[in-house]
Amino acid sequence: MKRIILSLILTIATIAVNAQSGTVHELLSYKSEILKAECHYSIYLPPDYESSTRSYPILYFFAGGEGSSISFIQHLKLNFIADHSINTGASLPMIIVMPDAGNSDSGFMNDIRGGWNYEEQFFEEFIPFIEKKYRVREGSPFRSIAGFSAGAEAAFLYAIHQPDVFYSASLLAMGVSPDDTYENTKKWIREIEGGDKLSESVIRTFYETHDVFHLLKTKTKEELEQTRWYIDCGDDDFLSEGNALVHIALSKKEVAHEYRVRDGGHLWEYFRASIPEVLKFVSKCIDEY
Asked: What torsion do the CA atoms of 92, 147, 156, 205 make, to the nearest 10 degrees?
């Protein structure tokens, strides 16, 4: 027994001595020609990034609400969680990029009225900018996307729209509801400024390319399985029914995915507990490649 206790103490001591901290840079800027705006992002670089010359897998992580990248550090403590996960070997060292959604009501989504094509700039400007500036491993198997709340909805759409770009998508309390019907979407669009001037065909096209349930219904099993899916939503979350329906839709098409329901609501505490599992899932997908 004494030997076991001594061995455990030595193991813990070794982990503590070898533990390293990653580096966080908040609110860095880049110029977007598509958006005609100065945009911002925050980034986490793994513990050995500065001391090595190797390249790393990358995870693009979208925030909910107004899409501010600061929430990942201030509320979710993502840097401490990632450090622990990497130092203990629970996940691979990876770069985590947290873009800001900007000052538009549409956030990470394109504005149906035009003038805010965030999705285009993300794929055409932001990803190339990031993966040229930092040492990122080449190829989609080493590129993942994740998000929570409204950011998870955007992550889902990005993965569906560009399935060859991301290998996995992790969706935490995705912003979906059984009420996301065409009629309700059209009503919402008609009520926003300038929405009453949009044609029925424009609204219909927007709905068919941006509604999660419509896409789950119309995409084939083979198309959906181009992405490895991870879904997590608390049992007390007001979005739990919508996320359960996403799980059911994938299951009916026999699309492989992971679905988690834990005790909790739409809270920072819940999302903090979800991050280690996201990092493990991303790492597992890379290892299985």
From this structure: -150
Other beta carbons within 10 angstroms of residue 161's beta carbon come to 13
pTM: 0.92
Q: Which two tokens mark 13?
A: 């001591």
Average pLDDT on 228-241 reads: 98
DSSP for 63-130 reads -STT--THHHHHTS-HHHHHHHHHHTTSS---EEEEE---S-TTTTSPPTTSS--HHHHIIIIIHHHH
- In 3-state terms, the chain is what percent helix, strand and coil (to 5)? 45, 20, 35
- The answer on pLDDT for 1 being more than 80 is no
For 19-177+222-288, the fitting CATH number among 3.20.20.370, 1.10.600.10, 3.90.1490.10, 3.40.50.1820 is: 3.40.50.1820
> How many whole angstroms separate alpha carbon 216 and alpha carbon 137?
30
Q: Residue ranges of the alpha helices (H) in 108-261?
A: 118-121, 127-133, 150-161, 182-191, 200-210, 212-218, 221-224, 240-252
Cβ-in-10-Å burial (0-12, 13-18, 19+) of 72 comes to buried
Rounded Cα–Cα distance for residues 76 and 70 (Å): 9
CA triplet 220, 221, 223: central angle to 5 degrees? 65
Task: Look at residues 147, 97, 149 and name the one whose alpha carbon lies nearest to residue 267.
Answer: 149
Question: What residues does each domain of the chain span?
Answer: 19-177+222-288
Average pLDDT over residues 132-154: 97
* pLDDT tens by residue, 160-209: 999 999 999 999 999 999 999 999 999 999 999 899 999 999 999 999 99
Question: Bridge partners of 171?
Answer: 147, 231
